[in-house]
User: Fold this.
Amino acid sequence: MRHDGLPATRHGLSRHGRGLPTLTSGVAVRLRGVEVEGLCSSRRLKVVGVFIFGFLGCVGDDAAMDALDVEDILSDALEILGGERVKDPGYVQYGPLRLTVAPKDGKANTLLADHLFSPALVLAELVERGVLPVAGRRIIELGAGCALPSLLAATIDPPPSLIVATDYPDDGILGNLKANVDRNKPHYRPPCQVYGVGFEWGSDIAPLLHLPQRIDSTLPGYDIVIMSDLLHFDSSHGVLVLALSSLLAKSSQTRVYVAAGNYTAPHVCDNFLNLGTLAGLIWEEKTSDKSEQEETWMGSMIVSGLDTAQLTTRKRACRWWIGRWSKKVLD
Assistant:
């Protein structure tokens, strides 16, 4: 069962949309711009999607897939296809932040909350550069994981007025999120208030709406909603759009920032965007006409274990959009 109470589909279990899709065998995969096809070592699983800095989808015996660790498959395939094994230092450092991912057990494992995916880095770079403006804003992140973009926003000067990082209310997932919030308190710029909160998509949003009203009771909701790598599991799009449209304040100045890895199929992204359009949002994709300079990593803060070239590769493997309310909604 998925965390929103619906049965898992052929797309597999997901972490708010991050799943291990069952794909058709024999499909060529792209590795560093080269079309290749390979096997996952002696496991004899056909590689059908290598997401160098995300995850790997394989087709094989269901029991074998249950028994194998996703990161083992990824690392094994990367070596065969000319990549490097993923080294996990146990924490993620981005500028002043020191973050951990959820422990690899229980819901954190099945919902992939124990990973940091490239779209979170892309959104963090936007925050660092000021492309995602945060000063004075009330910001909420859905399916935050380790909450890199939203917690980084709390360190920017001038700071947001409020950060609410949310994720599935599992002890391991939420416990790790709250630990990240607490660990990095010395780096938050006053008077920014920062919270880690459990939220299951489709559940009552009233508790989340109380927090921004403490800052500004004249405009219910949040000025910015952040969604990092949440689109892959299309069965959750309905509850995602419902949450988004309920949380984003009805103003011409409010925005939603959505990022997805290229491993999320275009038609899956389009499905989410279309549902958002029906809810009254207007989307602008910021990755369709980027210059070569814009495709290069432009952040200046240190990111643990990754140099500029590696960060550039991750950035180029992502898409991102800005959403705003249509005039029809605001009239």
Remarks:
- Residues 171-183 form the longest helix (13 residues).
